[in-house]
Amino acid sequence: MKKPLLNKIHLPLLLLCCSALAQDWSRDVEVITPRENIYQLNQEDFYKKVQDGRKVALFYPVTASELLIPYRPLETFFNSDPSDPMRKLIYQMVRSVSPFKSMDELYSWLGVHDFPKETQEENPNPWPELSALEKALPMGATLIKITDGEALTFGCAACHSADLFGVKVLGLTNRFPRANEFFRNGQMVAPYVNSFLFKDILKTTEGERQILVSAKSATKWVGTKKPVVLGLDTSLAQVALSLAKRENDDYATRTFLSARNPRPNKLSTLVADSKPAVWWNVKYKNRWLSDGSIVSGNPVHTNFLWNEIGRGTDLKKLEDWMQEGQEQIESLTAAVFATKPPRYEKFFGIDSIDLERAKKGQKHYVQSCQKCHGTYEKGWDRPLAFTKNKLYQIQTTKVIYHKKTPVIDVGTDPGRYKGMNEFFKDLNRLKISQNLNTVVEPQKGYVPPPLDGIWARWPYLHNNAIPNLCELLTPAPKRVKGYFAGKAIDKKLDYDQDCVGYPTQEKTPENWKLDPDYYYDTTREGLFNIGHDEKIFIKEGKEIYTEKEKREIIEFLKTL
Ligand code: HEC
Ligand code: HEC
Questions:
Q1: Rounded-to-integer distance, Cα 125 and Cα 93, Å
Q2: Separation of 198 CA from ligand 2 center, angstroms?
Q3: Is residue 73 a contact partner of residue 198, using CB atoms and an 8 Å limit?
Q4: Which of 276, 366, 385, 467 is most buried, by the most CB atoms less than 10 A from its CB?
Q5: Cα separation, 476 vs 545, whole angstroms
Q6: Which residues in 429-450 are b (16+ Cβ under 10 Å) and which e?
Q7: Contact of 231 with 461, CB cutoff 8 Å
Q8: What's the pLDDT score for residue 533?
Q9: Contact assessment for residue 427 and residue 476, using Cβ atoms and an 8 Å cutoff
């Protein structure tokens, strides 16, 4: 009798005490060296924790979520005979928002990627071991067990993994996510969902029917917004508009009245879209998001909180889950901090980098970029004995970034940082934020991000406004006014190796021009390609680098 009781009481206490000791999430804690191993575990435990955490990134663990889709009925629907009158009926009801003919079409539209078939040597973050069943759905798609059935949901990897020339990379921005649109469409379908009718047609179990009922209900407290352009995400607006549909109290209580009378919020029109950030920069920073507005607390907690507010979840239930799920949260945190960037030479070959040119580029970088983006020491800086091997020479041997993450206004589009003003108070007021010690403070400007793996992070800036590095080093008024985006499939056609990033203008692949969703128009609100030129590579109105020198900078950046 006594032993289990002891375990029950002491184990969580122990966990609480030691994880709190292992990491300080309070504001202004200084990052002296990159916190790649955030909980300072020994090698063996570290490896295991990170692999566990990668699994959490792939399979969404939050059972408090209510916005779930019963999986088998969805499959039944897509697999049923298209001429079946019942399928036709449902199809007609949801057609305007769901033009898909199969699950694969749905996944493809969502922008989620399949698991790799085999181990890929270029992948910097090895996948955890998974069963064939687990790999059956795309990365990020998750099946949660429910009473007599399974429900579909999406996790971190839906936005934070990408297909880079066939190599699947965890922690790299998904360039074409449609998560926000998915929520928006779901919300439009919800009124048509009659769980009893669906039960008859799709033979749902009682458990599945109940999931449908609670999903339909949860959408009442979800406020959505379609991104201005494919590639950006409106999580910020979704959190703000969802909070506006809840009561103004400690737990943002969900009431029918609050759902019916949302408080006005400027983010319903103001554009504050941004792209999902890469995970390998997190280890260098002590404040989070593109604008550095989260100034304390574990950023992974915030991601759960934001995801769940955006899914209409009861925050008391979420708080309970966060207690139960502590270990999963910790593993995920370890995995996020341990993420590594992919290397250019692994994709394009060692001969694709001109060493002499890169070394010259480093000098310009030190002069014009280092003070904001950090110091990159290279293999070639080390004593000669070590540097014969070119592969070694181009490696980064040390990165020195700011001890306190700065926020700087370099004149880039202000929409995203301004957007934070519209709902930070609602966030800080929440009991759950206070218990987690998460504090949001609006900023003026953006964090100059570390440039690790920058070659793989195109298009550039928080709002994707700049298609490649040649354009980044072009004065704003002379930059292209728009560009077509496209998937990274063919290294020669879909990527400009000289300019690093999207091929633009006459180099744009013809097939990219067929789909207007992929056109980025820099003249639209929130999509401006201004800034990051004056006082950086323009002094007193004059450019300080020649074309040749700019190429040298880019060559250096390829090696980061
Ligand atoms: C719907 C897409 C989406 C999902 C799902 C998502 N994120 Fe994000 N994430 C974003 C966007 C967009 C940003 C950047 C927002 C900004 O800073 O403007 C971001 C930023 C982050 C950052 C901050 C990085 C930095 O440099 O400060 C971390 C860490 C992160 N996400 C982790 C997660 C984790 C962990 C999960 C799963 C629990 C998750 N995200 C789920 C879209 C998503
Ligand atoms: C005064 C500080 C400052 C200097 C100097 C500076 N940058 Fe930046 N840089 C920033 C900030 C801030 C951002 C983020 C802007 C945004 O996202 O809107 C940024 C963004 C970038 C990005 C895009 C990152 C991404 O993830 O999309 C690249 C690439 C970049 N800078 C390269 C350079 C290079 C190369 C130099 C030197 C020629 C340089 N920067 C000099 C502040 C600076």
A1: 43
A2: 52
A3: yes
A4: 467
A5: 15
A6: ebebbeebebbbbebebbbbbb
A7: no
A8: 97
A9: no
Q: Which atom of ligand 1 is nearest to the CA of 291?
A: 17
Q: Which amino acid, one-letter code, is at 222?
A: V
Q: How far apart are CA 44 and CA 300, in angstroms?
A: 23
The residue with tokens 């009781």 is 5
| 258-283 pLDDT per residue, tens | 999 999 999 999 999 999 999 999 99
Asked if 234 contacts 422 with a C-beta cutoff of 8 angstroms, the reply is no
Distance from residue 508's CA to the centre of ligand 1 (Å): 29
Look up tokens 């007021």; give the residue. 429
Give the residue, out of 373, 499, 547, with the most ligand 2 atoms within 8 A of its beta carbon, to mutate for a pocket test.
373
Summarize pLDDT for 345-389 with one digit per residue, the tens: 999 999 999 999 999 999 999 999 999 999 999 999 988 766 678
For the record, the structure tokens of 354 come out as: 């001109």
Over residues 534-550, mean pLDDT = 96
As a whole number of angstroms, the distance between CA 113 and CA 301 comes to 25
Instruction: Using most ligand atoms within 8 A of CB, pick from 232, 369, 407, 547 the residue to mutate for ligand 2.
Output: 369
Q: Tokens for 521?
A: 């128009």
What is the Å distance from ligand 1's center to 303 Cα? Answer: 6
| Residue 540 pLDDT greater than 60, yes or no | yes
The CA 23 to ligand 1 mean position distance, Å, reads 21
* 292 Rama sector, left if φ>0, alpha if ψ -120 to 50, beta otherwise: left
Q: How far is CA 447 from CA 232, 290, 351, 397, 405, in A?
A: 18, 6, 33, 23, 7
Task: Take residue 263 and report the two structure tokens written for it.
Answer: 């408080």
**Which are the contacts of 525, defined by CB distance < 8 A and separation ≥ 6?**
228, 271, 415
Distance CA 405, CA 286 (A): 6
Quickly tell me which residue has 């744009």 as its tokens.
508
- Report the nearest-CA residue for atom 24 of ligand 2: 461
Q: Report the candidate in 400, 370, 398, 171 with the shortest Cα–Cα distance to residue 284.
A: 400
Lookup: tokens for 409: 């206004």
| Widest Cα–Cα separation across the chain | 80
* Per-residue model confidence as pLDDT tens digits over 390-432: 999 999 999 999 999 999 999 999 999 999 999 999 999 999 9
